[in-house]
Design brief:
Elements lengths: L10 E4 L4 E6 L2 E8 L3 E7 L4 E7 L14 H4 L1 H13 L9 E6 L9 H15 L6 E4 L4 E7 L4 E7 L6 E8 L6
Parallel strand pairs: 1-3, 6-7
Antiparallel strand pairs: 2-5, 3-8, 4-5, 4-6, 8-9, 9-10
Helix pairs in contact: 2-3
Length: 178
């Protein structure tokens, strides 16, 4: 886990494809150009931290490739691993706020975004994880900024990687702990 730095500005922590990062106040978790990948933004108010997971493929049985970050590559392994790490700190799933973003089919012939969304929903159901909110599917490219302090999540959307921004939605995650 990252600790706050001495400056007043937030330091950015980039979360790449097939990766998961935790951060505390003073840092902002960012992932850019989500197309078929799905990001889970998890606010953990009791620990005053947040996590951002970005998985690329639904399951190794559906799409098996070698990758050095295999544990975070597949939703079927990444989501349970993320929540086991959270629970290892004594936090229950009911005490976190979770948002899901991404899973678009920008490149319509692949359909991997739709497969990722279906897998996400199945895994969340199996793991008894409730989403606070979602912005999934479609054909938009999304980037997100997630501030652990207060759980503020901003999602920006655009038509394709070469287009200018066409919309923005920002929402504060409603935390379940006071």
């Amino acid at each position: 886990m990252l600790a706050p730095n001495s400056s007043t500005a937030c330091a950015n922590v980039e979360v790449a494809s097939a990766d998961c990062r935790f951060a505390a106040a003073g840092f902002r978790l960012i992932t850019r150009d989500l197309t078929s990948c799905v990001a889970l933004a998890v606010h953990i108010p009791v620990l005053e931290i947040a996590a951002l997971l970005r998985f690329s493929l639904p399951d190794p049985e559906i799409c098996s490739i070698e990758h050095s970050k295999g544990r975070w590559l597949y939703g079927s392994t990444a989501i349970p691993l993320l929540f086991s790490r959270i629970e290892a700190h004594g936090v229950s799933r009911e005490d976190v706020s979770v948002w899901a973003i991404g899973g678009s089919d920008v490149f319509s012939e692949s359909g991997i975004g739709s497969q990722n969304v279906r897998a996400l929903r199945k895994i969340l159901r199996q793991e008894s994880i409730t989403l606070q909110g979602e912005d999934l599917g479609g054909t938009l490219v999304r980037s997100l900024w997630f501030n652990p302090e207060g759980g503020r999540l901003i999602v920006r959307m655009r038509q394709n990687p070469d287009a200018s921004a066409v919309g923005e939605s920002g929402a504060s995650l409603q935390t379940k702990a006071s």
